[in-house]
Specification:
Blueprint (H helix, E strand, L loop, with lengths): L1 E4 L5 H11 L5 E4 L9 H5 L3 E4 L10 H21 L3 E6 L22 H16 L3 E6 L2 E2 L8 H9 L4 E4 L2 E3 L2 E2 H16 L6 E5 L5 E2 H18 L9 E4 L7 E2 L5 H7 L6 H15 L3 H7 L1
Helix pairs in contact: 1-6, 3-4, 5-7, 7-9
GO biological process, one term: O antigen biosynthetic process
Protein name: dTDP-4-dehydrorhamnose reductase
InterPro entries: NAD(P)-bd_dom_sf, RmlD-like-bd
């Protein structure tokens, strides 16, 4: 199976590359940016075109959101002409106001924000005009490298003594970019083998948690690891924010359909976070520790 991946520096693109390198059944062609050169789909002839998500669209500049939507629609038109399936990943923030219960796939976001509505219009076009599509809604992605990786930003702030801030009244499901990459390649392999299960799917980590609790857990787990190897580092603190005083916001994705259709299980974010912190600590050992291991 051959896939064409856009936005080479995105944390999800990097995770897809790592996962594909572990497999012998997947070839990736990864390009910079979200623009397709004329004739690229015909030349590469991929089984699908994959577009990583615009992270944190709620806080992105309107021009950035509009440009992302325009680029996705341009890619859709190219996929239509070339007969190539389209995979578009989108942020759970499109569910601007959240829901009291876990959000099912058939629930199309209806945000009030004008920029977010522009992304919804793009999704409506894809559903109406290109049947061979996957719209994959994701929880907040975290990874150690790449753009929009979140975790690397948190770690950099902590080790330099900066203060982290996280909403205590916003509940979500943090999602490992590595886990998404593994799930998506599995889904696309099944599609390549004739599953023909197109449509919208949710992928997120298990255990809903407030943003503040997640950020605090990152700090606690990092401090435990550094203390365990004898390092004394003054990590930055964590401050709780509250923006939804009347009604805490829950943005929790129900991922049952991806399990029922493709057999994909959600990955526990605590386990994924632990693995990433272990890898970060291994890569950031003091010089004397590295010398001892040699």
């Amino acid at each position: 199976m051959k896939l064409l991946i856009l936005d080479a520096g995105h944390c999800l693109s990097l995770a897809l590359a790592r996962e594909a390198n572990r497999r012998s059944d997947t070839e990736l062609v990864i390009v910079e940016g979200l623009e397709l050169e004329p004739g690229m789909l015909e030349e590469v002839a991929p089984q699908a075109l994959v577009i990583p998500p615009l992270a944190r669209p709620i806080s992105a500049a309107p021009a950035e959101v509009t440009e992302h939507a325009r680029a996705v629609e341009s890619c859709m038109e190219a996929c239509q002409a070339a007969g190539v399936p389209l995979v578009w990943c989108v942020s759970d923030q499109l569910y601007e106001d959240g829901f009291a219960e876990p959000i099912d796939e058939h629930v199309i976001p209806r945000p009030r924000d004008e920029s977010l509505r522009r992304l919804i219009a793009t999704g409506d076009r894809i559903r109406a005009e290109h049947p061979h599509h996957l719209i994959v809604r994701l929880g907040p992605l975290f990874a150690l490298e790449g753009s929009n990786a979140w975790l690397n930003e948190l770690l950099d702030t902590l080790v330099t003594g900066g203060e982290l801030r996280g909403e205590a009244d916003v509940t979500c499901c943090p999602t490992s970019a590595d886990a998404v990459a593994m799930a998506m390649l599995g889904m696309l392999q099944q599609q390549h083998c004739g599953a023909d299960a197109w449509g919208s799917y949710h992928l997120a980590g298990t255990e809903p948690v407030s943003v503040y609790t997640f950020v605090s857990m990152v700090r606690t787990q990092l401090a435990t690891r550094l203390e365990g190897r004898g390092e004394k580092v003054e990590l930055g603190g964590v401050k709780a924010l509250r923006h939804h005083h009347d009604q805490p916001l829950r943005r929790v994705l129900n991922c049952r359909r991806v399990l029922d259709v493709f057999g994909v299980h959600q990955k526990p974010w605590r386990l994924e976070l632990g693995l990433m912190l272990d890898a970060w600590c291994q890569a950031n050992q003091p010089d004397e520790e590295v010398a001892k291991q040699r």
